[in-house]
Amino acid sequence: MAITKRHSLRIAAVGVVSAASVVLAGTVASAATPAAAASAPQATAAKAGITAKPSVTSVKAWQLFRVTGTATGLKAGSKMVLQQKQGAKWVSLPAVTPLSSKGTYSLGVKLGLKGKNDLRIVSGSTASPVFNVTVR
């Protein structure tokens, strides 16, 4: 089952100042504007990214192996999901693990589809580069 919901990070700054508040509190309004502008670059600086590395490149059918990696820009506890390319679609497999507070994860995997398997780890709309494991 492919992930149908895609989440994206959107940051918007909206300031509404009426003419009366500009006249009455012009100093307060001008002091608040730089603080809001200064916080926006910090929020966009953390771009999300995921790395993934399988413990092996070739396994027997249903043999256990591990996929480990790190994630940046994601919250601790985020679900790290293994996806497999089946035809033209990415299908989420029942292999899920939470992201640790240190930004790492380790996932035990068993595959039964013989041949070269294109795999990736996803969390929300962020995906790792594709890696391959051959099942013989």
UniProtKB/TrEMBL annotation:
Keywords (A to Z) from UniProt: Signal
Signal is among the record's keywords: yes
Signal sequence range: 1-25
Protein name, as recorded: Secreted protein
Species name: Streptomyces noboritoensis
